[in-house]
Amino acid sequence: MEKSRLEMEFIDQEGKKFRLTLDEPREDITEAEVKSAMDDVVDKNIFYTTAGDIVDSVGARIITTVIDELEI
User: Fold this and answer.
1) Do the beta carbons of residue 11 and residue 47 sit within 8 Å?
2) Which of 46, 47, 54, 72 is the most exposed place for a label (fewest CB within 10 A)?
3) Distance between CA 4 and CA 26 in Å, rounded?
4) Is the pTM of this model over 0.90?
5) Residue 8 in contact with residue 57, Cβ under 8 Å?
6) Which residues are CB-contacts of 67 (< 8 A; sequence separation ≥ 6)?
7) Rounded distance, CA 5 to CA 63, Å?
8) pLDDT by residue (tens digit) across 11-38?
9) 64 phi and psi, to 5 degrees?
């Protein structure tokens, strides 16, 4: 079984990293769609961290994990 996760990384007002993760993103998601969503998070001030507002996007990645179940 294969699982994937979209991880988006941002910086808050104090320069600390903030990660937003989404399980099982669409397989055909594009970099432009992810960038647009990240821009919306920053521009619309959707989230607030303990260190203040999110001020910039840093990067994104899709992490894929392969799970092999063992029968014991």
Assistant:
1) no
2) 72
3) 9
4) no
5) yes
6) 1, 2, 3
7) 5
8) 999 999 999 999 999 999 999 999 999 9
9) -115, 130
- The Cα–Cα gap between 47 and 21 comes to 13
Amino acid at 71: E
Which burial class, exposed, middle or buried, applies to 51 when counting CB atoms under 10 A from its CB (0-12, 13-18, 19+)? middle
Cα torsion 40, 14, 59, 20: sign: negative
Residue at token pair 């988006």: 8
DSSP calls for the chain: -EEEEEEEEEEETTS-EEEEEEES--TT--HHHHHHHHHHHHHTT--EETTEEEEEEEEEEEEEEE------
